[in-house]
Amino acid sequence: MRAFRILLAGLSVACAAASASAQSPLFGTKPLAPAQQPGAMPPMSTLVPPPSTAPTDTLAAPPTGLPNQPIPGAAYSPWCGDRLPGGLDVGGNGPITYELFFRTGPNIIADAGGFNGTLDRSGWVFQFGTRSLLFNQAADAAWVLDLGLSTTINRGRQLDRTIPVLASELRGGDPSNTFTIPLGVRSVSRTSFNYGIGRDWFFNGPGYLGQAPDTNWRFGTDVGGRYGTASVGFEPQDDPGGYRRRQRIYHGIYLGTQLNWERNFGGWILLAGVRAEYGYTWTNLIPPLDGDIQDVNLMLTLGVRF
User: Fold this and answer.
1) Model confidence over 260-280: pLDDT tens digits?
2) Which residues form the domain of 113?
3) Disulfide engineering: 281 pairs with which of 174, 178, 211, 252, CB 3.0-4.6 Å?
4) What SS3 state is found at 175?
C-alpha cells in the first residue's frame, strides 16, 4: 500500500515538470487566435465586406434603357397604352364621382296615336336615380352613366270621347270576342326603369370634388332607353259607374339635355338646374289602335354629388 502511494506521488511530480517545460522558452508559447477560442464571436471586419465590394441593390437603382422601361418583373398591359404598369388612373383618365338626383315637372304630349283627343296634352312626371361621372384628366368634362326610375301620369280629357277597344283584350274578356267596345279614358300612367349614357362639360373649371371651384356651371346631353309597365283606366259608356283597366309592359327611348348650377361644400357638391327630354314610348294598351306616345318632359333638377 505504501509503495502504491509513492508511485502516485512520482507521477504527479512528473506531470508538473512536463507542464512547466511546455511554457519554457525551449518549447515556446503560441496563444490561440481570438476566433479559435471557444465561445468567442469572430470580429465584425471578417463578416462585413468593405464598402467598395458591397453588392448593389438592383431594385433601388433607376431603370436603364428606354425611358418607359418597367422595373424587372413588371409587364405591360394592352389596356395601359404606352404608360407604365401601375400608372393607369382610376377610370382610365381621371377620377370617378357619383351623383344622386330628383327631377319633376310637366309632361307635354306631342302625339298620342290612338289616344289623341282622349288625353290631356299636359301631365306630370317624377324621376329619381343615380349617375356616375367618369372625368377626363383635366376634370372639365366627363362621360356619364345614368340609372333611375320614373313615373308619368296623364289624365283623360273627356270621358264622352271614346275609343274602340277589342273586348277580348280587356280583363276577363272572352278571347273569342272580336268586337270592340267604346270606352272613355280616365288616365294613363307609365312607370319605368331608365338607363342612359351621355357627356357633361364644366364651364368654370374642374368638376371633380377635390378640385371644383366654389360655384360652377355644367351642360350635358344624353341618350337612353326605358323599360317598364303602363296602364290605362277606362269608363264604359253604357256603365258610367263601371271601371275597366288594362296593363301592359312597354319600352321607349329618350334624348335629353340639361343645364345645372353647382355649389361646392367641401365634402359634397349641391346641384340644381333644368332638364328637357324628348321621348318615344311603344305601348299596346288600346288594340287594335296604335297606343304609341311621343312627349316632352320639362323638369327641375335637385341633387348632390360626392
Assistant:
1) 999 999 899 999 999 999 999
2) 96-154+195-228+252-305
3) 252
4) coil
Are residues 254 and 238 in contact, defined by beta-carbon separation less than 8 angstroms? no
- Determine, yes or no, domain membership for 29: no
Output the domain CATH number for residue 141. 2.40.160.20
Q: Does residue 139 carry a pLDDT above 60?
A: yes
All three cell numbers of 208, joined, read 371633380
Residue type, 174: D
Instruction: Round to whole Å and give the CA distance between 154 and 190.
Output: 9
Residue-by-residue DSSP string for 245-260: EEEEEEEEEEEEEEEE
Q: Judge whether 220 and 201 are in contact, CB under 8 Å.
A: yes
Return the C-alpha cell found at 121: 296634352
In this structure, the dihedral spanned by the alpha carbons of residues 54, 55, 60 and 63, taken in order and rounded to 10 degrees, is 130
Contact 187, 169 (CB under 8 A): no
The answer, yes or no, to whether residue 115 has pLDDT greater than 70, is yes
- Asked if 182 contacts 164 with a C-beta cutoff of 8 angstroms, the reply is yes
Query: What's the pTM value of the predicted model, to 2 decimals?
Result: 0.68
Q: How is residue 226 written as a grid cell?
A: 326605358
The answer to whether residue 80 is domain-embedded is no
